[in-house]
Amino acid sequence: MRSPARRLSTRCVPTLCLLAVFASVSVAQPESLLTGDSLDGWTVKPSEAEGHWRLNDGVLTGENPDKVGSNLWTEKEYGDFELEVEYRTPSDYYDTGVFARGEGHQVQIGISGSLKRDMTASIYAPVEGQGGYPAKAPGVEELQRPGEWNRLRMVVRGDRIETFLNGEPMVDYRAAKLPARGPIGLQLHAGHHMKLLFRDLKVTEIGE
């Protein structure tokens, strides 16, 4: 006669349960988007402005002596992500930024052409219908280090965009028209000759 099959207990020792939960969670690793001298994985728009962007030993230079605007886009699209980048400029005037999921929403770096002042870490999104800058970063003048390396961090999760400048929180904005996925872009604004340097650009995709 067969012995009755033993039922496995569904109870869990607290410590073992906690270890099981941690084991089932995969931690996303930062992806470096600027390595070596190749811009593989990026595309310039308009294509005639490819000469504006060059990568040398992990440092990206964007410069437009012709004063024509251009954007450098990742070929890959992103959903929720955290981005960190260091930037520096020798230009007195610079108007650039990081696009989040397409060109509708940008985290500004530098001078606003319309407001004539530094709007770094602010959200530029006329598509929202709340003016050009629906979220303005405070205290930029105290945090920004002109001519030196500065660090911008942004977290994009769902409809929320958070920005940080040199380690300090700046804006926390809920967007109304932010696409669920899209490419990440860097900009050189038209109308001025400017030069920007970027390095240590890392993106970490955020899972659910």
Q: Which spans of ≥5 residues are poorly predicted at pLDDT below 50? A: 1-26
What would you report as the Rg, rounded to the nearest angstrom? Answer: 22 Å
Topology order in helix (H) and strand (E) letters = HEEEEEEEEEHEEEEE
Q: Based on helices, strands and strand pairing, what is the structural class?
A: mainly beta
How much of the sequence lies in strands comes to: 35-45%
| Count of alpha and pi helical runs | 2
- So what's the overall shape? globular
Overall pLDDT score: 89
What portion of residues is helical? under 10%
**Biggest sheet character:** 8 strands, antiparallel
What is the distance, rounded to the nearest whole angstrom, between the alpha carbons of the first and last residues?
Answer: 50 Å
How many runs of DSSP E, i.e. beta strands?
14
